[in-house]
Design brief:
The protein is α/β, with parallel strands linked by helices. The chain has 10 helices and 7 strands.
Length: 267
């Protein structure tokens, strides 16, 4: 993970309240889509608080599973919440401390767009998988498919036009179907496939949607934390007006990620 501007990723528990619950749901969809056989050697690059690794440890029955992340706080959370055979360490996604061709699968969940050089990180992922091995990732569709974030930034921009500069939908052009396909193809991977992964995000009441934005973890919470209290309250009211509420007060929105996979060429 990285810290760039408001992109603060450091506290695993705070991330869990903000995004982790949804990360785990989409991780399950991603692994179902990959459908890789058990007994493989897995690498999770940018493992964060362990959403993808913990799901893979149960669903995919790996022989080995290594999660790497640049945040000590996230690595601590991942270690505490992920079953065997997973192990974790701090590392830079663009300079992986592992040998060539020693994994069957290299995956990355919801982190590619936060890396300064996604192409360099992908090159490293290709290096560490064996010939014929799989390299795969998924990212939120910030521009069109991540509804609760889309409504947050629409509300923020209405209250504070300068918020548009921090909107993930504008900042992260890699989070799009054709951009991911191009990146994987340029890395020399074969059989490149891109697919949407959809989940439902349900908030029992508005505060369950709003309060995680106060965590300070990620672009939207980081932006919110920097606002004066009066502006923050105006944004809160603007967001409340933009989200649909059911008769029981619950808010149900959709979230979509784009997933991409390809295989390293056989020698």
């Amino acid at each position: 993970m990285t810290e760039r501007g408001f992109d603060v990723w450091a506290a695993g528990d705070a991330y869990e309240r903000y995004m982790g619950r949804w990360s785990r749901l989409v991780a399950d969809e991603f692994l179902r889509w990959l459908s890789w056989p058990p007994g493989a050697r897995w690498l999770d690059i940018g493992c964060g608080s362990g959403a993808l690794a913990s799901t893979a440890a149960v669903r995919c029955r790996p022989r080995t599973l290594l999660g790497l992340d640049g945040s000590a706080g996230f690595v601590t959370t991942a270690r505490a919440s992920t079953p065997d055979p997973a192990r974790f360490a701090m590392a830079d996604a663009q300079a992986l401390p592992v040998r060539d061709a020693c994994f069957d699968v290299a995956v990355s969940g919801l982190v590619l767009n936060f890396l300064p050089a996604p192409g360099a990180a992908l090159t490293e992922a290709v290096r560490v998988v064996r010939p014929g091995g799989l390299v795969a990732a998924y990212v939120w569709d910030y521009a069109e498919g991540m509804e609760f974030l889309r409504r947050f930034w629409d509300a923020a921009t209405a209250v504070d036009p300068s918020a548009a500069a921090h909107d993930e939908g504008r900042r992260f052009p890699v989070c799009e179907k054709s951009a991911l396909r191009r990146l994987w193809s340029e890395a020399g991977l074969t059989g490149v496939t891109v697919a949407p992964l959809g989940i439902t995000t349900r908030f029992p009441r508005f505060d369950d949607l709003w309060d995680p934005f106060l965590s300070g973890q990620g672009p939207a919470p980081g932006y919110l934390a920097a606002l004066p209290p009066a502006t923050r309250e105006r944004l809160r009211q603007a967001l409340r007006e933009r989200v649909p509420g059911g008769t029981d007060g619950a808010i149900t929105l959709r979230a979509r990620a784009w997933a991409v996979k390809g295989r390293r060429k056989d020698c």
